[in-house]
Specification:
Thrombin, subunit H; alpha+beta; about 25% strand; six-stranded antiparallel β-barrel; 2 helices; elongated; about 35% helix
Length: about 280
């Protein structure tokens, strides 16, 4: 079976050959005028068909090269667009990183203690443990039990340390505990982790008028976190008809899924207070 392309080319060649032969015959001197007219009448349709065929093939040929040129131009434009998108993405990432670092730098100015900035390089994949890995360790002055914070509030505390890396237990972990105060009324309790996005404020007496939206801060009484660091805001209050305590839910100010840089306080002082607007003191 011949392809359509081969059949078309063969047909055009045949038409051209017939045209040449008939013209050759019609132009010979020994042919009469009537015979010439007959030849012209016979050959005209073939000439017309040949002309149209050649024009058609020429159009296809030109269109083919035009499409190839257009394809190459499109490929080049795609490469330029891809490069522009990549550059724009890098610029956006640099801008976001600079914004975070500016916030950290401004926060450091309000801290009396010595601190070090660390990058989060890993997270515990287990749903049972809420920990992160940071790129600072013993070689950088990090030791166990040091507090870890960000400008928005408390992240957690260091629980394991190697030469260049440390593991941080987040305040949303169920074994985490932060001695805390309800800032507005100074009621004291203990914030413990409950889930990925909330904590529980335990031991708040029923007599205290806790309201949704109240800010919860560290009390400084646990000898780990300096006083005045933000923990979260009250997102739920349930007062039972009996019992000494009420159930208070606290939503941290930090989105732990988006942590990228943190601050480790290297020499926290017991009962030390931050001189910052963040603490609200």
């Amino acid at each position: 079976m011949f392809s359509k392309k081969i059949v078309i080319i063969a047909g055009v060649i045949v038409l051209i050959a017939i045209n040449i032969i008939v013209l050759s015959i019609s132009n010979r001197r020994y042919h009469s005028f009537g015979a010439g007219r007959i030849a012209i009448s016979f050959i005209a349709p073939f000439q017309n068909a040949t002309t149209h065929s050649i024009s058609f093939i020429k159009g296809i040929w030109n269109r083919y090269f035009f499409l190839i040129s257009l394809q190459e131009e499109n490929d080049n434009l795609r490469k330029v667009l891809s490069s522009a998108i990549e550059k724009n993405n890098r610029y956006n990432e640099i801008e976001a990183s600079n914004k975070r670092l500016r916030n950290i730098l401004n926060f450091r100015k309000t801290v009396a203690e010595k601190v070090i900035v660390a990058e989060v390089i890993g997270k515990d994949p287990s749903p049972w443990f809420k920990t992160i890995i940071i790129d600072k360790g013993k070689a950088d002055g990090v030791v166990k039990s040091l507090p870890v914070v960000v400008p928005e509030g408390i992240v957690g505390q260091v629980v394991n340390v190697s030469s260049h890396y440390s593991k941080v237990l987040l305040i949303i972990d169920q074994i985490s505990a932060v001695d805390a105060l309800v800032q507005r009324i100074r009621a004291r309790g203990v914030v413990v982790g409950e889930s990925a996005d909330r904590c529980i404020l335990n031991y708040i007496l029923r007599k205290h008028d806790i309201k949704v939206g109240d800010t919860v801060i560290s009390s400084g009484m646990d000898a780990v976190f300096p006083k005045g660091l933000r923990v979260g805001s009250v997102s739920g209050v349930i007062k039972h008809n009996s019992g000494m305590f009420q159930d208070v839910t606290v939503t941290p100010y930090i989105d732990f899924e988006k942590l990228e840089e943190v601050i480790v306080i290297l020499n926290p002082r017991k009962h030390a207070e931050f001189r910052s607007e963040v603490s609200g003191q």
